[in-house]
Specification:
Helix content is 31%, strand content 31%. With 258 residues, the protein is α/β, with parallel strands linked by helices.
Length: 258
C-alpha cells in the first residue's frame, strides 16, 4: 500500500527551478532515503511534502489524499516532521516540548488529558529520553535534542514521518543511534541524508537526486553504484558488498584519472 505518492512535482523559488518533475512513492512501513549533493533539491522536496513550500505543479498525496487540500491540522495528523536541530532554543522542559506533539489532536482550549500524558510517556520511552523528561531542552546535547524531537514526532501519532537532514551536525554515535531507532520503529518514513553509508545501512530504498531531478531510485545495492555516485557527486566511489551490507569509500575523480 502506498503511504506517500509524489506525482510530477515542480517547485521554483525566485524564478529558479529547485525541484523538477519529481515522481516517487513510499510504501507503508518503508524507510526511504533521499541522497544527493548540496543543492540537489532534497530538502526542498521534503518541504513541499510537509507543506512549507507549495509546488507550482504536480500532486502530493498521503493515503490517496492531496496534502495541499487538507487543513493544517489534518495534515499534521497524517505527517510528523523532524527537521535539523533547531537553532532557536525552546524554553520548555522535555516533557512540555513532547506534549506539543499532541496539539493536532486537541481543540484550542482543551487541557492535556490522561490519554495525552500516556502517549507522551510512551513517546519519551520509545525515543529513549524518559530520564530527561524534566530537563530543559536548551540544556541537552545535540543527540539528546534530536531524540527529544523524535519523541515529539511519535507523540503526534502520525502515520508518516519526514526527517529533514536529522543527523546534520551530530556526532557519528548519535547519527547511528537516531537512525537505528527510526528503523526499529518500522514507521513509514522518508529522510534526507548526507552520508551514503548511513543511507545504505538503514534505508529500504534510496532516491538519488541531482539538479532537482531523480537520477536513480531503488534498493541501496542497485542505486549506490560507482557509476551513479560518480554521476551524482562527481567522485569515484569504491563500493563493496559483504555480509554486513554495502561499504562505500571515496576518492576524487581527478585523482582517479578523470
Amino acid at each position: 500500500m502506498t503511504a506517500l505518492n509524489v506525482d510530477n512535482i515542480t517547485l521554483s523559488i525566485d524564478g529558479a527551478t529547485i525541484v523538477d518533475r519529481v515522481m516517487l512513492a513510499v510504501q507503508l512501513g518503508e524507510f526511504v532515503g533521499l541522497v544527493g549533493p548540496n543543492g540537489s533539491g532534497k530538502s526542498s522536496l521534503l518541504r513541499a511534502i510537509y507543506r512549507v513550500l507549495k509546488p507550482q505543479a504536480g500532486l502530493t498525496t498521503t493515503d490517496g489524499d492531496d496534502v495541499w487540500a487538507m487543513s493544517a491540522r489534518d495534515a499534521a495528523r497524517r505527517t510528523a516532521v523532524m527537521a535539523q536541530e533547531a537553532h532557536a532554543e525552546f524554553d520548555f522542559t522535555v516533557r512540555e516540548l513532547v506534549m506539543t506533539g499532541r496539539t493536532p489532536h486537541k481543540d484550542m482550549f482543551d487541557r492535556d488529558s490522561r490519554e495525552d500524558h500516556a502517549i507522551v510517556d510512551a513517546g519519551l520511552a520509545q525515543a529513549g529520553v524518559a530520564h530527561l523528561a524534566e530537563r530543559h531542552f536548551a540544556t541537552l546535547s545535540g543527540g539528546e535534542k534530536q531524540r527529544v524531537l523524535l519523541a515529539r514526532a511519535l507523540a503526534q501519532q502520525a502515520k508518516f514521518l519526514v526527517l529533514d537532514e536529522p543527523t546534520n551536525h551530530l556526532d557519528i554515535r548519535y547519527q547511528l543511534e537516531l537512525l537505528s531507532l527510526v528503523r526499529s520503529l518500522r514507521t513509514t518514513a522518508i529522510a534526507a541524508l548526507h552520508d551514503l553509508n548511513l543511507a545504505a545501512r538503514y534505508c529500504d530504498r534510496i532516491v538519488v537526486m541531482k539538479g532537482g531531478r531523480v537520477l536513480a531510485a531503488g534498493m541501496p545495492s542497485n542505486v549506490l553504484t560507482t557509476e551513479i555516485i560518480r554521476d551524482a557527486f562527481g567522485v569515484l566511489a569504491i563500493v563493496k558488498q559483504d555480509a554486513d551490507g554495502l561499504s562505500i569509500s571515496f576518492t576524487t575523480v581527478e585523482s582517479a584519472g578523470g
